[in-house]
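Example 3.2
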Amino acid sequence: MKTAKLVIGIISMVLSVFVLFQSCAAGMYNALSSNGQASGTGGVFVAICLMIAGIVGVATRNSVKKGGALAAAGFCLAGALVGGVLAGDYSDLYIWSFIAWAFGAVYLVDGFYSEPGKLNLKAWMLVLALIILPPVGIILLWIDRPFKLSSSIITTVIGSVAILVMATNFIGTDSGSVTSDEVATQTSQTTQVSSESAANSSETQVAKTYGLNETWTVDGALSLTFTAAAVTDDRNQFDDSNPAQVVILTYDYENLGIDNEYMDLYISSSDFKVIDSAGVMASTYPATTDYPQETPVGAKCIGAQEAYGLTNPGGVITVQVEIYGNGLEKHEAVFELPVG
């Protein structure tokens, strides 16, 4: 079985990389859909077992001792068992678990096989039976007796557990399973639904246009008020944009419930799109301003400022605001501010 172990070992190592990436996608799908399944973790475990079994199988293919084959069998069968138990809606994991079981059966027979018995079964015949029809393979194992008694018992227990796990999980997943192609599709759809829900929840906020000193409030998230849109003569000697007018926006905001583990609420120019009175987009300008601050839940930032260079001076500027809250929920508002 030297050639068989070499081929199986190479396939195991290559396949483990594919299974690993696919399992990461399945894990992301589980997280986004909050379905409580651990199929992604199970897939990663299967990938690791296949990789280790492949390396051991290739490294010990020429050894006359059986330890290497049995070790590789152990990793393959452990992967098959865990994958079959945790597969859930990740239906491709049943395929990878079956392949792991098949490879494990080859290593198992190689490790235990001594010589043909009553039926004169070759090793490859027994392997084929254990892979395709495990119950038949177990029956032939006891009739032909090519293994020692202890080895036959171990093989029977392993085969019976594998049959039970796979049969139970296949019955439980007649409906609602997803293939590898569907994992990415459903992940995208889940994200899209979340985005649409967030957009719908903020439609009432976008419908109203706010003015100077009017407060935009998103319950449980934030409030924002622009208190000034003042012209300044401050110019930066290192800036070559030469705007017709520089306006400093002054604003206050309060964190009413946005709790981000990476950063507290921080509203800055990256959250604003400023349009001048003639409809031309304005750019930030390096004037002297009071910077916004990271603001935890329950706190306020007062007097934050951002400077913009306008192509067309005066009139009323429009500020479109987009802020992401908990769960990447997008909140939007529009302000129209007279320049003064």
